[in-house]
Design a protein that fits this description.
The protein is 45% helix and 14% strand. By secondary structure, it is α+β, with helices and mostly antiparallel strands. Strands 1, 2, 3, 4, 5, 6, 7, 8, 9, 10, 11 and 12 form a 12-stranded mixed sheet that branches. A hairpin with a 5-residue loop joins strand 1 and strand 2.
């Protein structure tokens, strides 16, 4: 059932109400902050107009006004996202405002508060988004624990300045002074020293503000479910991939076990996703029967609306993008191209392949050999050597991957994966963790006749051209394994780079290409495109699907966090390259020339894909 249908059963839909309530709370919050920062405005006409607005502080101290303003701004954000808890909080505040304004004999302000309260009550159905159910108790415990801590600290603070206290107030007065100070109000305790009084006042107000803000944040923050693929979900996804896996080269990556999945009502299609920073992030096309895609997409969007998550899709194909935009009313942005090589048409002959041919021959003369095997055919000793080698080659403590990475190696369920290893005997006296293994490519199935690159890593001290050798040997051996198509790396903004260097390119396109080339000094954008182009691939466009342009920055941050390019300190996960997350490997030889860069190491995703 769609949200619009749900609303129509409860009354007339008024989708503008949450935004209007949010803007009202935002304006009032800003007025409170301005009046707290600039006390002279309290006697101005602006203050007189604001006095009839609910929640606008006119008689409280500056610190209390500042605190109320901050809380209103936080509530405004939650109201705009249709949070049910924010609606309840605002209704309670308006009810209290009506009572207080009536007691102070201010009928205009009381009437305004009452009117707004009625409007919110009538439009209750517009505020349906759920918050994290766990945060309700966390918010309560935060309030109780920090509140008790604040009271103790406040009482100790007053006791520390007992010599500057007038009239020797009792314990009850001191405690009441602390409680009022936490909400920014003056208490019954008087200080003979203005400096001591200000220090106690602002210290208490700061403690109260910290407690209030953290409590509101915990109460209103979006739900962050633990992303985990259950055994039943994985079984159902594998059944869909067995039938429809040929449609999308990224389909197998839906089997990452740190993703969640939503199935269509018929069970014939599914969308894999993870929630990051309030964004419900899917990757690739839906899995399964294309006729059932709309059902899975609608369920995905309903779940996003239910929790006030921003829905987004990264890396979907053209067909998937069309269905997403049609069913969800979303927009699409081309973000790059996937390099797909048709095995039947691949050859090392010809002038176009001269560079690759020369690098491959050079590496072979240096004594490197390659082996191409199914993962299921590896012995446990071989699996362990590959794990050890890849773990030794990883570059950072952060495991990367989400949309185009599987995140594990050697699982019995992934016996159909293909692994390509490069070998050369280690110098005498050295015992590397992988034995004679010098580089690894790992491919996941893409239907019955395709493979998709998952992992590309090599020894950082290996010779230039090793990655070219691995890819060439994988393409040459592909027919033996019934493989007709090989998906290689993903090139960000490939079309802009290609069109921008052509004769007659316009100034805008040239400028955009210049920006991308400049960014390539830190991120492998142009170099990765050049590396992929060596193998004469077909370029398959990939898209980002998003609700509105204003959501793009948030979606971008979410995608970077999901791919682990933005991480919080101390939150690295996993101990090895084939655990839940993976770490970046050496960049292709074509990018670095086989040399390490100085302190600024070029960016490279562990899967060879951004």
């Amino acid at each position: 059932m769609s949200r619009r249908t749900h609303i129509s059963r409860n009354g007339i839909a008024r989708p503008w109400v949450p935004a209007a309530a949010a803007y009202a709370a935002l304006i009032i919050g800003i007025l409170d902050i301005v009046k707290a920062v600039f006390p002279r405005l309290r006697g101005s006409r602006i203050s007189e107009i604001a006095s009839v607005l609910p929640g606008s502080v006119t008689t409280l101290a500056e610190t209390a006004s500042l605190l109320v303003g901050i809380l209103l701004i936080m509530l405004a954000h939650a109201l705009r996202r249709r949070k049910a808890r924010a609606w309840r909080a605002v209704v309670v505040l308006l009810t209290v405002s009506v009572v207080l304004e009536a007691l102070h004999r201010r009928p205009v302000a009381a009437s305004v508060s009452l009117l707004l309260c009625v409007v919110l009550l009538v439009n209750r159905q517009e505020f349906y988004a759920l918050s994290d159910p766990r945060s309700r108790w966390r918010a309560l415990w935060n309030l109780l624990v920090l509140g008790a801590f604040d009271v103790v600290i406040g009482w100790i603070l007053i006791a520390a300045y007992h010599q500057t206290i007038a009239d020797h107030p009792g314990f009850g007065d001191q405690l009441w002074h602390v409680v009022l100070g936490l909400v920014g109000l003056e208490g019954p305790v008087a200080f003979t020293s203005e400096r001591a009084g200000d220090l106690v006042y602002f210290s208490l107000a700061g403690l109260g503000a910290l407690t209030g803000v953290t409590t509101i944040y915990l109460a209103l923050r979006p739900e962050r479910p633990v992303a985990a693929l259950t055994e039943d979900d994985e079984r159902r996804l594998r059944a869909l991939l067995d039938r429809y896996g040929r449609q999308d080269s990224l389909g197998y990556f839906a089997l990452r076990r740190d993703k969640s999945v939503i199935f269509s009502p018929s069970g014939k299609a599914a969308v894999a996703y993870r929630v990051v920073a309030g964004v419900m992030l899917a990757s690739g096309d839906p899995i399964g029967d294309p006729e059932a895609w709309p059902g899975a997409i609608r369920r995905f969007l309903e779940e996003a609306r239910r929790h006030a998550w921003v829905p987004a899709v990264i890396g979907c194909g053209e067909t998937g993008g069309e269905v997403w935009t049609r069913e969800g009313g979303l927009d699409a942005l081309e973000i790059g191209d996937e390099a797909v090589v048709e095995v039947a048409g691949f050859t090392l002959e010809g002038r176009a392949m001269r560079n690759v041919r020369q690098m491959v021959k050079r590496v072979e003369r240096l004594g490197y050999t390659c082996r191409v095997r199914r993962t299921g055919d590896l012995s446990e000793a071989d699996r362990e050597r590959i794990r050890n080698a890849a773990d030794f080659w990883r570059g950072t403590e952060t495991e990367r991957g989400f949309s185009m990475a599987l995140g594990r190696f050697g699982d019995p369920a992934d016996a159909g994966c293909l692994v390509v290893t490069a070998h050369r005997a280690a110098p005498e006296g050295e015992e590397p963790p992988g034995g004679d293994i010098r580089a690894v490519l790992h491919f996941v199935p893409w239907g019955a006749d395709g493979i998709s690159l998952d992992l590309m890593r090599r020894d950082r001290d290996a010779d230039p051209g090793l990655n070219e050798l691995l890819i060439v040997r994988a393409l040459q051996a592909a027919p033996e394994f019934g493989v007709a198509r090989v998906s290689l790396n993903f090139a960000m903004f490939r079309s802009a780079l290609a069109r921008g260097e052509r004769l007659g390119a316009g100034p805008v396109l040239r400028a955009w290409r210049g920006v991308l080339v400049f960014l390539s000094r830190w991120f492998q954008i142009e170099s990765l495109y050049r590396f992929n182009a060596k193998f004469s691939p077909l370029w398959v466009p990939r898209f980002l699907v998003y609700p509105t342009a204003r959501d793009l920055p948030r979606i971008g941050v979410s995608a970077l966090r999901a791919e682990a390019f933005l991480t919080l300190p101390g939150l690295g996960r996993g101990n090895g390259p084939f655990q839940r997350w993976r770490r970046p490997q050496a960049v292709p030889d074509a990018v670095t020339g086989g040399r390490r860069r100085g302190g600024r190491r070029a960016w490279r995703p562990s899967s060879g894909r951004p």
